[in-house]
Amino acid sequence: MKTAMRFGGTSLRAAALGVLALAGLAMQPAAAEERAKDLFGARKLPAVTAAQSIGFYSKGCFAGGVAIPMDGPTWEVMRPSRNRRWGHPALIALIERLSRDATADGWPGLLIGDISQPRGGPMTSGHASHQIGLDADIWLTPMPSRPLSMAQRESISATLMVDEKTHLVKDALWTPAHTRLLRRAASYPQVERILVNPGIKKKLCDTVRGDRTWLRKVRPFWGHDYHFHMRIGCQPGSPGCKAQETTPADDGCGKPLAWWFTQEPWRPNKNPDAPKARDLMTMANLPRECRAVLDAPGPVSAEAATYRGGSAAVAASEPEAAPPPPITTGGNALPASMNAFTSTPEIGVPLPRPRPPMN
Ligand SMILES: [Zn+2]
């Protein structure tokens, strides 16, 4: 009996070890499928390489990112604890330029919302896009005259510009300066799209006189009622950056806008708890170069990779990693239905201006 028990115990132990070994094997694919948002969300500093966007706005990453300084003469970064003030140097330069131009237009400076994580990729919360360093959210609330403390930047709310029931802009809040700000942002050749709430698009459609060509770039989308979203095109030096379809040539004030004022876009989500694409993406869903971006060395500090007016401090006490090789595949595609920004076929896009000089 005793012997049998011991034998039985040994067998059990052996069996248990076998299960553990199997579990160990199973761990490897599980680890490989770690969520990309957790891996990219954990990177506090950028990949120190030449600036390069890889993949699509909602499925990619970027290297050589720089941070916009927390404060400038004409801007303040909001929600600093999120560490999302990183972007392609061309985007950061353009945001700074917009802040100066907008101030000259009578807007008292920009409050800057989310740009990207230091190496882009899917975010731990929020946005589907903002993954390749070419998207930025800018508040529709002007910069207050007194500097905001870091605590205030975490806590104060942006102004909701749109009535949630009618989806129309609150007329008491909208000013000609808001229109000028959006027109200025749309005026830059690098900017391909500006996303705003349909109510804001309608306000522009109803009120803009004279040149209306810029309305083409202003696109209605859910949300975007506290801020607008500025998207620039793929930049030179990014062969793996996947361009978005150009917007139609008309002002977009006709039928496509009317759809937003029907019931259809606002039907309650039947499955509100269903995970979003950014929650499910693994490294296998991203372009394979994003693994190299994730693993590339970082700068010594955020300060060392902070953009300084045209000469980005690309930091560099660490050896430069070789830039990732040109992209050849788009990674394993997620079902299109899972992606709010379904990628579009490659088409010719106007070449943006050369990127700013870098050290
Ligand atoms: Zn955005």
Key features of this structure:
9 helices, four-stranded mixed sheet, three-stranded mixed sheet, disordered C terminus, globular, Muramoyl-pentapeptide Carboxypeptidase, domain 2, 359 residues, binds zinc ion, alpha+beta, disordered N terminus
Account of the protein in words:
With 359 residues, this protein is an alpha+beta fold. It has a single domain (48-264, 276-338), classed as Muramoyl-pentapeptide Carboxypeptidase, domain 2. It is 27% helix and 12% strand. It contains nine helices and eleven strands. It has helices at 2-32, 36-41, 89-104, 150-155, 176-187, 198-207, 255-259, 277-280, 289-295; strands at residues 52-56, 59-63, 66-67, 71-72, 75-77, 86-87, 110-112, 135-139, 191-196, 218-220, 227-232. The strands form four sheets. It has a four-stranded mixed beta sheet, with helices on one face. A hairpin with a 2-residue loop joins strand 4 and strand 5 (75-77). The chain is globular and about 50 Å long. The protein binds zinc ion.
